[in-house]
Amino acid sequence: MLAELLPSTVAAVEVRTDPVDIPLFPEEEAHVRDAAPKRRAEFTAVRWCARRAMAGLGLPAAPVVPGRRGAPGWGPGLAGSMTHCAGFRAAALARHRDVRSLGIDAEPNTSLPAGILEEISLGPERRQIAALRHARPEIAWDRLLFSAKESVFKTWYPTTGLELGFHQALITFDPDQRGFRARLLTAAAGDSAPRSYTGRYGVEGGILATAIAQLAPALVPA
Q1: Stretch 107-116: mean pLDDT, rounded?
Q2: How far is CA 214 from its chain centroid?
Q3: Domains assigned to the chain
C-alpha cells in the first residue's frame, strides 16, 4: 500500500505479521533489552522492514537507533520513516538526492476515542470531516486526520529539529485524488522551512496509511 503512495525513488516495505527470529544489531538491542514482548516485536519488525528497504536501495543492512523524540537514526545521505500499529509494520527509505524528508504513518480504520478529535483538530478540519463522514462513511476520517498529522510531524522534525503541535498544521483532504495538503501554521523554523506539504493516503484491509515525501530542492517543480 505505501509503495503506491510514495515516489518510485522511495523503497517502502510493509508486513502484516511479525517476522520471527530476526536478530538486532547490538546498538538496537540495547533499546529493547528489558522491553515487553509486544514492544520488542514492534521494534524488531519495523527494523526488519528497514533492512529490506536498505536492500531495495542497494545498501547493506545497518542499525536504526532511536534518537531524540524516538526519531529513527538513518545513515548519512538518507531520509526515512517507520510506522507500526496492530497488524501493520512498515518502513520507507530514500536517498537525500531524491527526497529531503519522509513521513509515513499507519492506523486502524476505526474512529478515535471520544474527545480526541477536538484535541487534535482545527475548526476547518472538523467541518470537512463532518462532510466526509456523510459522503464516504467507509473511512474513519478522524483517525485519518490523526495519521496525516503524524506523517507531517515525521517529515518536519528531521529537517528542523523543532516540535510541531497538532494545531500547527491545517490538513485539507482531497478524497477524489486520495491526497491531502498540510499548511504549516508556524514560523518557528525561519524562512527556509517548508510552509506546506502534500501527501497521499490509502485504505486497505482495515488499515489507514498516510505518506509524505518532501522532494529534494533540485527536484521540486518550478
Answers
A1: 97
A2: 12
A3: 2-96 (3.90.470.20), 105-219 (3.90.470.20)
Report whether 15 contacts 90 (CB < 8 A): yes
Q: Could you give the C-alpha distances from 170 to 122, 166, 173, in angstroms and in order?
A: 7, 8, 10
Q: Judge whether residue 218 has pLDDT over 90.
A: no
Q: What is the pTM of this model?
A: 0.94
**DSSP-derived secondary structure for 39-92:** HHHHHHHHHHHHHHHHHHTT------EE-GGG-EEPPTTEEEEEEEETTEEEEE
Pull the grid cell for residue 8.
518510485
Residues across the chain:
222
Which residues, at least 6 apart from 221, have a Cβ–Cβ distance to it below 8 Å? none
Find the mean pLDDT for residues 132-152: 98
Instruction: Identify the CA nearest to 28 among candidates 66, 80, 68, 78.
Output: 66
Residue-averaged pLDDT of the chain = 94
| pLDDT value of residue 189 | 62
Q: Residues 86-112: what's their mean pLDDT?
A: 97
Closest to 212 (Cα-Cα) out of 187, 165, 168, 180: 180
Q: For residue 72, what are the β-bridge partners?
A: 66
Assigned C-alpha cell, 52: 529490506
